[in-house]
Amino acid sequence: MNPTTKTAPKTFHVKSFGCQMNVYDGERMAELMAADGLTHSANADDADLIVLNTCHIRERATEKVYSDIGRLRKVAGKQGRAPMIAVAGCVAQAEGEEIVRRAKVDVVVGPQAYHNLPGLVARSVAGGAAIDTDMPVESKFDAMPARRRVGPSAFLTVQEGCDKFCTYCVVPYTRGAEVSRPFAAIMDEARALIDAGAKEITLLGQNVNAWEDGERGLHDLIRALDKLPGLARIRYTTSHPNDMKQGLIDAHRDIGSLMPFLHLPVQSGSDRVLRAMNRSHTTDSYLRVLDRVRAARPDIALSGDFIVGFPGESEAEFAETLRLVDAVGYSQAFSFKYSPRPGTPAAEMADQIAPEVMDDRLQRLQAALNRDQQAFNAATVGRTCDVLIERAGKLPGQMLGKSPWLNSVHVIADAAIGDMVRVQITAAGPNAVTGRIQP
Ligand code: SAH
Ligand code: SF4
Ligand code: F3S
């Protein structure tokens, strides 16, 4: 074999797929590479090092990695360049060396090991591929440079991993066991984020409401964050129905900066399917949690995740999911066709559902969810609320931001990114609402 002659990269680009935690990890990797002396390149196609921060949740997400690598190589080849490619994230954790065999990438680094990215890049420059998919006991967060510049709405990972083992899901395998970051480290990072420009912080975790540090639960963390000067809004995601403790529900009533929005995945409206999924809650226990949340914060906007076509799901069981959707009235939601994942129990179950049946169910579910989203948006018309401006819109003078209920708001305003403006909602579309600045 010819010795590879690689030169150390000078520029880098990080591309993140999947969930918000991956977006957060991508930002941290970018800060790490910048601290190591590399320059960020806005475009993947002219970077010396491309980091693909990947998602393994469904088959299509995983396959996207390989097609992306092919496409990036082709574009670079036309320019006579051969950028280094690092695969990070959940596909890196799940497939490890296989990625090197299949796509000849330079670096493979798992979600719990990315603090080693600069060292792995250096090792690969010296020759061959460098792989690190360890789940070390020491925390990667301790090895990371401080946050410098962020947008008005920032993510902060407080909890990682999952011990729930839903039978369809790869997250417990790719992210490892449930670990909560210490209270003090989170508060330090929150202060750094506020200094770096954040007005809103979204606390992230695969089961964020299971966060704990000694006697403290997530609501204690939220109460402490609420006291930080300069922080206007707090959100958290994703929660598990069984970890929705009364303290957290009460926080929605008591804490003004905790936004009236809750993403609480349910997956199915059939108790038999929920049991087969190992969800450890029923439709009834889920609905009772929502009742308590609504009692504490009547205007709360609710969101969820759904899977259609789980092995063995009958038409009658799917109809129960539609009934649950009708009963809740979500403001928005995500719905997916079941995707069998290697190594998960559900992938081995009999009675896998035909693709055309899944397509049909997904369509019907999404029609119901879209109807409710539209209805929710329409119900906000006439309300006045604060909007945190996050970016410029397409029209002249138009700015885009989020309402407390997380709908996207378009407004013509003489406002800067990061401003909190008072807006009256005047019209609603399917995916966003329009408002007018209030004097
Ligand atoms: N921790 C969160 C989210 C995990 S992943 C939770 O407990 O809900 C985000 C969503 O992806 C899940 O809520 C589920 O709806 C979906 N998902 C996970 N595995 C899937 C699979 N194998 N096929 C289809 N959708 C899946
Ligand atoms: Fe996956 Fe279930 Fe854990 Fe959510 S709770 S990450 S769906 S195993
Ligand atoms: Fe995907 Fe991993 Fe997030 S599988 S959804 S990137 S935790």
Features:
439 residues; alpha/beta; Rossmann fold; Transcription Regulator spoIIAA; 4 domains; 6-stranded parallel sheet; 5-stranded mixed β-barrel; 13 helices; 35% helix; 23% strand; binds S-adenosyl-L-homocysteine; binds iron/sulfur cluster; binds FE3-S4 cluster
Give a concise summary.
35% of the residues lie in helices and 23% in strands. With 439 residues, the chain is an alpha/beta fold.
How much strand content do the residues show?
Answer: 15-25%
What is the CATH C-level name of the largest domain?
Alpha Beta
Which blocks of ≥5 consecutive residues have pLDDT under 50? none
Bound molecules: S-adenosyl-L-homocysteine, iron/sulfur cluster, FE3-S4 cluster
What is the count of distinct domains? 4
Spatial gap, N to C terminus = 71 Å
Number of strand elements = 21
Question: Which fold name corresponds to the CATH topology of the largest domain?
Answer: Rossmann fold
Could you give me the name of the CATH homologous superfamily of the largest domain?
A: Methylthiotransferase, N-terminal domain
CATH architecture of the largest domain: 3-Layer(aba) Sandwich
Quote the average pLDDT. Answer: 96
In which range does the helix fraction lie? 25-40%
Count of helical segments? 13
What is the global morphology?
globular
Query: Within the largest sheet, what's the order of strands?
Result: 2-1-3-4-5-6
**Broad structural category:** alpha/beta
How is the main sheet built?
A: 6 strands, parallel
C-alpha Rg, in Å?
A: 23 Å
